[in-house]
Design goal:
22% helix; alpha+beta; 4 strands; globular
Amino acid sequence: MLFKIKNILQDFKAFQSEEKFDLIVSNPPYFEESDSEKDKLARQTVELNFLQLISKSSELLSENGILSVIIPSEAGSDFVRIAHENQLFLIRQVNIKGIENSKVKRLILEFSFN
């Protein structure tokens, strides 16, 4: 099996491509806006919110492509709803706990058009 991996440093919202992608992986910003300048780009949804990530991914994915994200568990239902509204459907969910017998802390979610 041959894989071609491409790493492009560019604002995802402005990215344009004729090529469709089989896999898009993201650890998106997920905190709402706050006064923390340190975390503004990396962790807050100011520059890239879930709707922008999902709608742009749906434009760039191939017919059988997969969008894979890791997000906080409390954001899961909103993310799934927004994805569904953009014709992306949940095909796999992995629950991540910090320690055994604790509550779920993060979710790995995978979506496709099928």
